[in-house]
Amino acid sequence: MTERSDGPRDSRSGTTAAREAPAEPAQHPAATGGGGGPAAAKPTWGGRSGSLGPSPRVAIFFLLPTLILLGAMVVYPIVYSIWRSLFDRAGDTFVGLGNYADIFTDQSMLTTIRNNLIWVVVAPILVTTLGLIFAVLTERIRWATAFKLIVFMPMAVSLLASGVIFRLVYEQDPDKGVANAVITTVRDAFSSSAGYPGARPRPNDEAHAVQNGAVVTRRPVAAAGPALVPLVGLRPNAIPADAAPAKAPAAGGGVSGTVWLDFTPGGGGKTGQIDAAEKGMPGITVEALQNGAVRGTTTTGPDGSFAFTGLPAGDYTLRLPQENFTAAFNGVSWLGPALITPAIIGAFIWVWAGFAMVLIAAGLAAIPRDALEAARIDGATEWQVFRRITVPLLSPVLVVVFVTMIINTLKVFDLVFVIAPGSVQPQANVIALEMWRVSFGGGDNQGLGSALAIFLLILVLPFMIINIRRFRREGR
Q1: Strand pairing class (317-320; 285-290)
Q2: CA–CA distance, 249 with 227 (Å, rounded to integer)
Q3: Pairing with 322, which of 70, 246, 388, 469 sits 20 to 30 Å away (CA)?
């Protein structure tokens, strides 16, 4: 019988390679696991069998400094604040939840909570919306890099410095505040800004009267001679610096006249007559009325003189409208009680809109372009593509930005503290600022301040948990 070999044959001798191969030495039973078969080798790392990486003792050794710092800077302050919030102002008497009850019963505290609610509702929505608009615009303009740089630049400025900047922007005086300078410039382009509040005729003036705040002539004015309108009730320094000495226009030039401050500094002069030291009142609107209708309108010059042109012959009643005697428009009171919170929210949006734009632009760049192009090919408009495809695909990023902004608004402190003047801080107060004010800003009530700190932590925690869970889902 021929012996069969499964091994490959040698081409020279015809014998199998298996027969010529030397026998392998027998393995030790310990290497075979005691069963005669090959055993799986178990690598050892860090002194442990079957596990990769360092041992738990080594990991704890390296984590211990961080854990100590975390406990000293985070855990201990939280625990101590909870404990301190249960005691009174001095920390000697246990009051239980009395400090927490004061938060919801004190009227100023309720105003603070209301302001925080306004912040949470308004600011995150506006920041996220503007960030989305800016991110979409950067994909459609050529100078996108410069645009992103300009919008993101406020992030390089601290919130304290941003507060100082906007405190100057919101100044009431248009010569100092940029916001009011812009508003008054635009308004002055459409209407006169001259105002002489308090100006009026003399009480015994038989030629002029006050009707509904306007100064009118009692008798018709003929075109033959100038009409003189003397006014009092103003300080000399209320006249503009560019005002010239009052001068009566020449007679026979149509309906004309002069409006001036009938007051001579130092005394003297004649009542109802133009004296050399008396100033004209420039910029006053004068109307010519006939049968109750306005037939012409003009404005006084630097010397207070005025003249109508193109009026038909006849007698007219002159009227100086009420607008001449109201205070000149000096802008909006941004730092007043009514607008202080919206003004500070505007500063917050200026700071954080660039941050939202960068995050949303990163998410926008990750959207597959095939889906957008397919929708356009199918006939969808740009608005439909944006609303039905772009926004749904960006929803995870938008949620992250929105939740992050909610956390930031709950913790806002710097902007409110710097921008709001001391007189209106109660109207602009927020929880973080009230916590500092009660504890260290003169209140000296550590118990109530600790309660506010824990209340703020409770408000922030749910949104932090939402962000952490979303990050974990995205990581998986």
Answers
A1: antiparallel
A2: 9
A3: 246
